[in-house]
């Protein structure tokens, strides 16, 4: 049979949807139907909720379902990071225990990677897991953990061997968040939102069967997760028209509203390039030569970044290994966020800092100004992206390091 093209896949999804869609279903029942049909992740193996299709089929299936007024897959760490990591590296037992309920959105996940002393230098983390029979006992502190306050499960990297060298002593676990050894403390951000947390682990337990990959494989598996994170497209929160009705839509609307509570400031952290022109017109700044140049730079960088993202997506969908596009794209987003912040400041002046009172702009601009710094930190800082590009793409010598060749317990700290 000749390979399917995008149109064939869209037609197949349409045909399936016509029979399967029932707006009276509960959201979870609908999503189970979707997952079991293979159209939630058609690029996966048909043994595991897929249809053995190329990676682009996921995008085509999700877009087709949305265009027909249906509900597609959930957003967040579960679908975006946990599920593909379990699929790539997990045992059959883990896949059968966790994939379906993660793809349906029944299980909410968070990522417990960063620590107060280990962000860019993630492999230097100190949270420790010690084996106790068929369980591991975990102690330590994690930080900046988005969505940990409502997560059911965590993807966790912990040190299981202090005698091994830094990167070899780590293992990767799936840990339940609803247990007495896990304390989640929300962090109040300077934009007044509270989307991430500190997480304190005091004798938290994880079954041995919940190790992803083998003992000591933690760094390899975590790199896989980070590659998915770098390629997480800015999937927007689904919106449903007023005319769309039914139980599944109502529950999907509520799910989107809950998701938005955590992620509502994410567009602002990207700088809101979409508001720049309208604001300049509103504030009669379109004839200001400085502002005009700033706007031109924002728009051209933004368009360039869109094309780079397209290139990255096309390469990924053709099954090519991740190249430089992920890091270049991420750097471009940081640059756009900074330029937007400067341009909004030029347009609004000091009033842009105000959220209320006479002459204040609405609080979107103030939120942009305090949120854009996060863009160049989350998912790996700009400096780290520069290092990745320098070493992996340009072939520059590796950064000097003093802690890779000795047992981690002997590394000075
Ligand atoms: C919005 C947001 C959401 C996040 N969500 C999560 C989450 O869900 N789970 C999670 O585990 N973490 C999360 N993080 C944490 C994020 O991964 C870390 O903040 C990031 O990796 C940077 O680590 P750090 O904050 O410890 O900074 P550091 O690593 O301490 O860096 C401080 C500064 O030093 C620079 N620097 C460090 N090393 C080098 C080097 N080798 N060469 C040059 N410069 C260097 C950095 O670029 C930076 O400017 C989130 C962060 C943000 C902002």
Short structural summary:
The protein has 413 residues and is α+β, with helices and mostly antiparallel strands.
Overview of this structure, please?
This protein has 413 residues and is an alpha+beta fold. It has 13 helices and 8 strands. A 4-stranded mixed sheet has the order 1-4-5-8. Strands 2-3-7-6 form a 4-stranded antiparallel sheet, with no helix packed on it. β2 and β3 (135-143) form a beta hairpin. α1 (6-20) packs across α3 (56-67), α9 (273-282) runs antiparallel to α10 (289-317) and α9 runs parallel beside α11 (325-348). The longest helix is centred in the last third of the chain and has 29 residues, at 289-317. It is globular. The protein starts with 5 loop residues before the first helix and ends in a 20-residue tail after the last helix. It binds flavin-adenine dinucleotide (FAD). Flavin-adenine dinucleotide binds next to α13.
Set out the fold topology.
Layout (H helix, E strand, L loop, with lengths): L5 H15 L6 H11 L18 H12 L9 H13 L2 H12 L5 E4 L15 E5 L2 E9 L9 E7 L10 E7 L5 E5 L10 E11 L3 E2 L5 H13 L16 H17 L2 H4 L3 H10 L6 H29 L7 H24 L14 H9 L10 H12 L20
Parallel strand pairs: 1-4
Antiparallel strand pairs: 2-3, 3-7, 4-5, 5-8, 6-7
Helix pairs in contact: 1-3, 4-5, 4-6, 9-10, 9-11, 10-11, 11-13
The chain binds flavin-adenine dinucleotide.
């Amino acid at each position: 049979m000749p390979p399917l093209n995008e149109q064939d896949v869209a037609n197949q999804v349409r045909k399936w949807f016509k029979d399967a869609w029932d707006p009276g279903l509960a959201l979870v029942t609908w999503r189970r139907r979707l997952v079991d049909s293979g159209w939630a992740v058609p690029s996966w193996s048909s043994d595991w909720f897929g249809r053995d299709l190329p990676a682009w089929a996921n995008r085509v299936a999700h877009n087709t379902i949305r265009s027909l007024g249906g509900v597609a897959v959930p957003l967040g760490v579960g679908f975006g990071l946990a599920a593909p990591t379990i699929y790539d590296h997990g045992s059959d037992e883990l896949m059968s225990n966790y994939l379906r309920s993660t793809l349906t959105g029944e299980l909410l996940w968070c990522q417990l990677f960063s620590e107060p002393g280990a962000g860019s230098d993630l492999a230097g983390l100190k949270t420790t897991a010690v084996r106790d029979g068929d369980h591991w006992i975990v102690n330590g502190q994690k930080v900046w953990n988005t969505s940990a306050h409502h997560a059911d499960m965590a993807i966790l990297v912990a040190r299981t061997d202090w005698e091994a060298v830094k990167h070899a002593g780590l293992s990767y676990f799936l840990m339940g968040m609803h247990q007495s050894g896990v304390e989640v403390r929300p962090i109040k951000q300077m934009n007044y939102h509270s989307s991430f947390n500190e997480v304190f682990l005091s004798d938290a337990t994880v079954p041995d069967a919940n190790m992803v990959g083998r003992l000591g494989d933690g760094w390899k598996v975590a790199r896989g997760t980070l590659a998915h994170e770098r390629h997480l497209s800015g999937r927007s929160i689904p919106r449903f028209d007023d005319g769309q009705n039914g139980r599944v839509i109502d529950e999907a609307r509520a799910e989107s509203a809950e998701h938005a509570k955590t992620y509502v400031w994410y567009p602002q952290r990207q700088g809101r390039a979409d508001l720049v022109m309208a604001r300049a017109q509103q504030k009669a700044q379109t004839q200001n030569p400085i502002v005009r140049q700033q706007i031109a730079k924002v728009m051209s960088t933004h368009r360039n970044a869109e094309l780079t993202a397209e290139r990255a997506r096309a390469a990924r969908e053709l099954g090519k290994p991740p190249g430089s596009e992920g890091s270049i794209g991420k750097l471009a987003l940081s640059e756009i966020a900074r330029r937007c912040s400067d341009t909004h400041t030029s347009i609004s002046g000091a009033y842009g800092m105000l959220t209320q009172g006479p002459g204040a702009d609405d609080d979107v601009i103030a939120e942009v100004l305090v949120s854009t710094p996060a863009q160049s930190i989350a998912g790996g800082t700009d400096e780290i992206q520069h290092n990745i590009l320098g070493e992996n793409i340009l072939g520059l010598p590796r950064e000097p390091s003093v802690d890779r060749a000795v047992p981690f317990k002997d590394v000075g700290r």
